[in-house]
Amino acid sequence: MLTKRIIPCLDIKNGRTVKGVNFLDLRDAGDPIELAKFYSENGAEELVFLDISATEERRKTLAELVLKVAETIDIPFTVGGGISSVEDVEILLNNGADKVSVNSSAVKNPQLINELASKFGSQCVVVAIDAKQIDGNWKVHLVGGKVPTDLDLFEWAKEVELRGAGEILFTSMDHDGTKNGFANEALAKLSTELNIPIIASGGAGTIQHFTDTFIEGKADAALAASVFHFKEITINNLKKELKTQEIPVRL
Amino acid sequence: MNAETNKKLKVSPPLGAGSLVIINYGAGNIQSIKFALKRLGVEAILSNDEAEIRQADKVIFPGVGEASSAMQKLKTSGLDQVIPTLKQPVLGICLGMQLLCNSSEEGNTKSLGIFDVEVKRFSNEVKVPQIGWNQISNLKSGLFEGISENQFMYLVHSYYAPLCKETIATSEYGIQYSSAIQKDNFYGVQFHPEKSSTAGAQILKNFLNL
Q1: Nearest chain B Cα to A39, which residue?
Q2: 3-state secondary structure of B31
Q3: Residue A250 belongs to a domain
Q4: What is the rounded CA–CA span in Å between residue B117 and residue B66?
């Protein structure tokens, strides 16, 4: 049986792992390679590396990091942050990344999704969507959640599926950093209306939040950062608890 | 790939005893397989050269992406004629396994035809692609030496090989399908052993020991 995935997210800036609280206040949580190795040996299903410095600097640093990660770990990983062209993606995949995630660049140039899917296959194209509610409507935001757009979350999600995205990583800006739980209502709607896997992101604080996002939010995977980096939750304990709730996990 | 690049990628151990070639035809996450083998102490040779491939003790045939364009790349390099005639153990991974079959619904592709199997798309009763860790069961091959029934493997695919007489492992995703197949010296696995933690590494090791 296909199991639910637990995905630690490593935010990378200048080659180090950081975790933003509501994407702004950054804290250092260690060396990405060490952290990646630790998670791969301690129950993570896959990892996401998000380079939050990529738009301003150094594609090369990211490519080198990807190579080191691929050499070190034996579980799949996704790389995102500032990826805006077929060439960017080609380098990262050649260096051993399994998937790439695109966000702002896909909104600015939706055709990029089609190009990536046809050149590399849908299975390696994750479209990350950051959204928050404005007057009760979920609106897509860009540049790490700083810039609002007129795009409706659900319409955009359906469009990226049609264009060939293999997976959606949905971060609720309203929940991210709050540790009050995931945006389960929106997640469930995405999961029901689309036929590609949905990764829940933003709001993990307790084990119960993960249970809720798999059951109520119908998520296929759940991503979190600080609860894992600061060892507030261990992945093995989390998965044991999910199993007692009859949620399929790899144990 | 041109001869010069090939030369550059060649690693020190000479061809012959113990050599392993990963077929490099521009459609695969080759780096990950190379690193996985390196963790097992094996330096793989990346090649699309017929002579080099024929001389290898073991051949890995990777593949990610879309079936018809991958098949086209094989044809361009003439490898579509070479692979079916190989005599040493060959391991097709993911799309590599699918291309060892007769045909694929993906891009209506006629493939290598080693297995008399038609690769089909998952129905929309399930989310497509399947992404994540699923179990492999009904294990029947030396490839799975030391691997327990229902072991978890990492899979990412939209198309599958149905159950057939060459099935050596099954998985369930809406239906039961072949997660591994074997015929003579040809092995195919739908999952990614190079990304499936220690159990995946064990399967690669078993392949090296065949």
Answers
A1: B197
A2: helix
A3: no
A4: 18
In chain A, the number of structural domains is 1
Flag if A250 and B152 touch (Cβ within 8 Å).
yes
Which ranges of B1-150 would DSSP assign to H, the alpha helix?
3-9, 30-39, 50-55, 67-76, 79-82, 95-99
The CATH number for A88's domain is 3.20.20.70
pLDDT per position as a tens digit, A72-104: 999 999 999 889 999 999 999 999 999 999 999
End-to-end Cα separation, chain A, in angstroms: 12
Could you tell me if residue A107 is inside a domain?
yes
> Rg of chain A's alpha carbons, rounded to an integer?
16
Range of the domain at B183: 3-208
Q: How far apart are CA A77 and CA A5, in angstroms?
A: 12
Query: Per-residue pLDDT tens for A152-189?
Result: 999 999 999 999 999 999 999 999 888 999 999 999 99
What residue of A is the nearest CA neighbor of B126? A195
B16: confidence class by pLDDT, cuts 50, 70, 90:
very low
Contact assessment for residue B133 and residue B152, using Cβ atoms and an 8 Å cutoff: yes
Catalytic residue among A28, A51, A88, A130: A130
**Cβ-Cβ contacts under 8 Å, A5 against chain B:** 131-133
Calculate the average pLDDT of chain A: 91
- For chain B, say whether A26 makes contact (Cβ under 8 Å): no
The yes-or-no answer on residue B172 being catalytic is no
Q: How many domains does chain B have?
A: 1
Task: At B104, give phi and psi (nearest 5°).
Answer: -135, 140
Give me the domain span that covers residue A25: 5-244
C-beta of residue A19 within 8 angstroms of C-beta of residue A11: yes
A249 found inside a domain = no
Which candidate from B66, B131, B197 shows the least CB-CB separation from A75?
Answer: B197
- Could you tell me if residue A54 is inside a domain? yes
Q: What is the dihedral of CA B33, B157, B180, B74, to 10 degrees?
A: -60
What are the DSSP E strand ranges found in A74-153?
77-80, 99-102, 125-134, 137-142, 147-152
Task: For residue B120, give the CATH number of its domain.
Answer: 3.40.50.880
pLDDT digits (tens, 9 = 90+) for B31-43: 999 999 999 999 9
B31, B32, B132: residue with CB nearest A45: B132
**Which residues in chain B are contacts of A4 at CB distance < 8 A?**
132
* Pairwise CA distance, residues A184 & A186, whole Å: 6
Interface check A148 vs B, CB under 8 A: no
